[in-house]
Each structure stands twice: as C-alpha cells, then as structure tokens.
From TrEMBL:
It comes from Phyllobacterium phragmitis. It comes from the Bacteria. SUPFAM superfamilies: UDP-Glycosyltransferase/glycogen phosphorylase. It holds the Pfam family Glyco_trans_1_4. InterPro entries: Glycosyltransferase_grp1. This is Glycosyltransferase family 4 protein.
C-alpha cells in the first residue's frame, strides 16, 4: 500500500532526538519492512505546550494550508491508500488527516492516540474533542499500552482498537561483551517535570546504598542539566560519569558495558530506553507506574517497585548488585524478551496482520 504518514507532535525528520521521534521512525521502518511504501505527508507539528488560543488558531490555518496542498497533489498524482497518524493527543491533535481521508475516501489509522478526561478544560477541551472525533472516525486505532487502550475505549466506545506492544530496532545489540556488574546506567533527557523527578529519586536512592561499590553512567542532556548534576553533587568523585547526548551506537556500547539499568520512570508513557537496555542484556530497576510494566516484565526481566517508594527502589538496586545469580538470570531473560518479542521484525509482522482488517483497503 501507499501510506501517507504524519506525526502530529514531532516529525520523524526533526533534528532533536526524542522518544517520540524514535517511535515515528520505528513505525515507518516496520511498515516498510511489511512491503508498504510510506510517504511523509506533512512535517507540520500541531503541538503546543500551553493552551494558547491565538497560537492554536495559527496552527489551524497552517493545517488547512497543508491539507489544501496535499489535496492538490493527490488530485494530480493520485491519493494514497491509507493515512497513518502517529501520536494524536490533546496537545497535538490531527488537524489534517481525517478531512483528507473523508474527501478522498481512503482509510484512516492512528497509532498511540490517547485521551484523558482530566484534560477537558479550556482550550484542551476542544483539542480533546478533536482527538476523540479522529479516534471515532479511524478504521483502526493502534495502542501501545493497555492504559491508552482503556482510556480510548472509555472516551470513545465505538472506537476500533488493537494492541501493538512497544518495540525497537535491535540492530547493534547482537553481541554481549563482558560487562561490569557494578556499573549502573540510565539514558534520559534532562528537562523539568517527570524527567527531573526521576533523576531526583535516583539520586536519593543511590545515596541510601552509598556503602556498595557501584558506579553510574548517565547518558543524556537538556535544559535541566545544571539541576540534574546538582542532585548528584554529594557523591564521591568518580562515582558518576556524565556522557552527555550520544548517538545510538555509542549508547549501545555504554549499555553493553554495564550491569543494571536504573531509571524510576516517573510518568513514563512506556520508555524505549528500557527496551534498549534489555536488548543489551541489562535487567531493569524501575517503578511500577504508568506504561513501564508494558516494557519491563516484573520479576523476569527486572524489578518494578511501588510508586514513590524510594526505599523500595534503592533495595531493588541493592538486590541485583548483591545477588549475582539473579542478576544474570534476569539479564538473559531481558535480552530474550526484546530480541524475540519486541523487535522491529516482530512489530512488522503484527502490523501486517492488522492492516488487512482495515475497511476500504
């Protein structure tokens, strides 16, 4: 099929790396592995951090112009078979795809759409309505987590839903060199909100096991770098290694040389970095919150601790640092889990099984 692809929050061509950009690229890769021709329909982002009606009006105008451009193009060259929108939600609704799908009689599909009733205030009430309308209009809504699927089912009972678990490209994670079991690692952007809260919880937890001979590699950068480094200022020199932002191959090398992946995951939608760590053969210590249980199998590929329980989080890290046999068993299970169940190839097979069920293809 010819598939018109649109990521409402951040296009896959964006210069700044993020989980959103990575998943958009992974979806395109999975679709192309299935034999489909994927075209980036528009690089327009409808995202806005705060509810600004004037800015949203400008975004609506830009979206209308994009829709008119595509309509002219399709009348001249032919319309695609399907429109595929990634990550429409209240801060980034799809303002282009539904109208074009209706006008040209093509199938409309979303992936990782989400809906939260607590956002139904002010401008967000309107954007939530647009998301719900898109979800209800879609021939298929592909959910990455059970939480998102339940939220959509509650808000839009008529929605057609299916589940595609989060996945990664396992290229680069094929070999496991000898790792330092005492080396901890985390990979995360440094920004305010949930990320900074996770860094804070990690620093506090590590302070409670300062008597153990661990070291920590931190991969990531961002506007909150000063606040993050301040959180770890009390540790002895050499304990923390700051690597900054790295290319994916360098990240894979650092993961491969470590023993345990540690990241609380406050408010994490799911976290592709957890899958990358497990693909490298690292067990994970995280909180049992949000979408984290969708990518870490508690007791099998890692340990998930109760939300906001710093003592439990610290104890879980200590447990894997001091119980070598359990750490090795979880490391092997983590690697098998991702390579066998959460690879790009596995996702492509699942997607190919879903799309023929979409009406009007």
């Amino acid at each position: 099929m010819r598939i018109a692809f649109h990521a409402t929050m951040k296009p896959p061509t964006h210069s700044v790396p993020s989980g959103d950009r990575q998943m958009a690229r992974l979806l395109i890769g999975a679709l192309e592995r299935g034999g489909h021709c994927v075209e980036l329909a528009s690089a327009l982002s409808t995202y806005q951090r705060d509810p600004d009606r004037d800015r949203f009006a400008r975004i609506e105008t830009q979206a209308a112009q994009e829709a008119a451009r595509l309509a002219t193009l399709w009348r001249r060259e032919g319309a695609p078979d399907l429109w595929f929108t990634y990550h429409p939600y209240y801060k980034a609704p799809d303002l282009i795809g539904p109208g074009l799908a209706d006008a040209f009689g093509i199938a409309y599909v979303t992936a990782e759409a989400s809906y939260s009733r607590r956002r139904n205030t002010g401008l967000w009430a309107r954007t939530q309505m647009l998301v719900a309308r898109s979800v209800g209009r879609a021939a298929l809504n592909i959910c990455f987590t059970r939480r998102d699927r339940e939220g959509l089912a509650d808000a839009v009972p008529e929605a057609v839903l299916d589940l595609l678990p989060p996945f990664i490209d396992i290229t680069g994670f094929s070999a496991k060199p000898a790792a330092d079991p005492r080396r901890l690692v985390c990979v995360a952007m440094m920004r305010s909100g949930d990320k900074l809260a996770s860094y804070g919880m990690l620093a506090e937890a590590l302070g409670r096991i300062d008597h153990l001979p661990w070291s920590l590699s931190v991969v990531g950068d961002g506007p909150a770098r000063a606040e993050v480094t301040a959180l770890f200022a009390g540790f002895a020199p050499g304990r923390i290694a700051w690597h900054g932002r790295l290319e994916s191959s360098a990240v894979a090398d650092i993961l491969a040389g470590a023993g345990i992946y540690v990241w609380p995951g406050c408010g994490e939608a799911y976290g592709l970095a957890y899958l990358e760590a497990q693909a490298a053969g690292l067990p994970v210590v995280a909180q049992h919150v949000a979408g984290v249980p969708e990518v870490v199998v508690n007791g099998r590929t890692g340990l998930l601790t109760p939300p906001d329980d710093v003592e439990a989080f610290a104890s879980a890290i200590e447990r894997l640092l001091t119980h070598e046999r359990e750490r090795i068993a979880m490391a092997d299970a983590a690697r098998c889990f991702v390579h066998e169940e959460r690879s790009l190839e596995a996702a492509s097979v699942r997607l190919n099984a879903m799309l023929p069920k979409v009406p009007a293809l």
